[in-house]
Amino acid sequence: MSNLIPFFKKIALTVLVLAIGMVALPTTSASAAGLQDSTTPPANQPANNVLLEQVWARAQSAYQRQGDRLAKADEFISKAQFLIDKASQKGWDTSAVQAALDAFAAVIPAAQAAHDPGTAIIASHNGFDANGKVTDRPYAVETVKALGQVLKNTHLAMNGTGQALRAAVKAFRAAHRPTQTPTAP
User: Fold this and answer.
1) DSSP 120-150
2) pLDDT at 80
3) Mean pLDDT by groups of 10 residues along the chain of 185 residues
């Protein structure tokens, strides 16, 4: 009986490896046109255009999210300042969080200036129609690149201050986490 257990383990392992190998193999076949095929491929490659349209839609969504965050920055800063003032009144050291918030607040105008050109890019949508479909591929590629550069420039203008603020708040919370006293049963 004890000799059968390793045997069954080996069989189970072999079956598992074969099953994974079978899943990795393609289930459909591909065929190519013969050498004598006289049809020409389409000039406009729709599969590539679909991908470009998806990238354009994602870039617009990212631009919108970035704009929403920048629009809410002043409200966020005032709420954070209120909480810092409240913690300071308790006698807690808030200097690290305050410095991070000040750095964050200082870069918001530059980030907004870097973000603003994207509005004109989206409005003109060169190479795309009003529905986001590609009408002129070279212009569409340039439009996507331009909007991507705006997103990147805005991110660079923030200079990591958002992450630094998040880290400072996390450290502050960890240092001032309320202690729980164990309750007796």
Assistant:
1) HHHHH-TTB-TTS-BSSHHHHHHHHHHHHHH
2) 94
3) 68 65 55 57 65 94 95 94 94 94 96 96 92 92 95 95 94 84 66
Instruction: Compute the distance between CA of residue 9 and CA of residue 74 in angstroms, rounded to an integer.
Output: 63
Closest CA to 97 of 159, 175, 158: 175
DSSP assignment of 90-123 equals TT---HHHHHHHHHHHHHHHHHHHHHTHHHHHHH
Res 35: pLDDT: 57
Q: What is the pTM of this model?
A: 0.68
Is 83 buried (19+), middle (13-18) or exposed (0-12) by CB count in 10 A?
A: middle
CA atoms within 13 A on the CB side of 108: 18
CA distance 73 to 71: 6
